Amino acid sequence: MNILIADGQTKVRYALSVLLQEQTGWMVVGMAHNGEELLSKTNKLKPDVLLVDWSLPGLRPAELMDALHRLAFRPSVIVLSTDPEIRQRAMAMGADYFISKVDSPNKLLEVLQVCEDRMTTLYKSDPMTRLMNSDH
């Protein structure tokens, strides 16, 4: 499963990358430090999952979520925030999942496993979906 990390803080991007690279079958394919870079890298790399900091510099959250929903393919979007109050707004704007940055790293790993399981089920039932989400 290919994952793109978008967070304005270098240390957070690095910590998430280290955590995820330890997982078998998961690959961090890119990192972005602002909204514009996230959109550019998402279009280029076509990750399966986006980890997006709610306060990512660049675009406002509503603009960013709208742009992500207009993509030709649909990665899972996991919103991260230090403010658990954001959960409802993020989900209403189309996030697939919300993780508080104060949650245990295991919570993020559990949600990513759910994403991978959903993806596997979807691709088995509809092989064309995988073809549309890849460069091949």
Walk me through the structure.
There is one protein chain. By secondary structure, the chain is an alpha/beta fold. It has a single domain, classed as 3-Layer(aba) Sandwich (Rossmann fold), CATH 3.40.50.2300. The longest helix is centred in the C-terminal third of the chain and has 21 residues, at 105-125. It has helices at residues 10-21, 35-45, 61-69, 87-92, 105-125, 127-132, and strands spanning 2-6, 27-32, 49-53, 76-81, 97-100. It is globular. The protein is built from 6 helices and 5 strands, in the order E-H-E-H-E-H-E-H-E-H-H.
Summarize the structure.
The chain is of the alpha/beta class and 136 residues long. Helix content is 48%, strand content 19%. It has one domain (2-132): Response regulator (Rossmann fold), CATH 3.40.50.2300.
Give the helix tally.
Answer: 6
**Strand-pairing-aware structural class:** alpha/beta
End-to-end distance:
16 Å
Low-pLDDT segments? none
What composes the largest sheet?
5 strands, parallel
| Oligomeric category | single chain
Strand order of the largest sheet: 2-1-3-4-5
Query: What is the H-and-E element order?
Result: EHEHEHEHEHH
Percent strand: 15-25%
CATH class: Alpha Beta
What is the rounded Rg? Answer: 14 Å
How much helicity do the residues have? 40-55%
List the helices and strands and how they pair.
Elements: E1 2-6, H1 10-21, E2 27-32, H2 35-45, E3 49-53, H3 61-69, E4 76-81, H4 87-92, E5 97-100, H5 105-125, H6 127-132
Parallel strand pairs: 1-2, 1-3, 3-4, 4-5
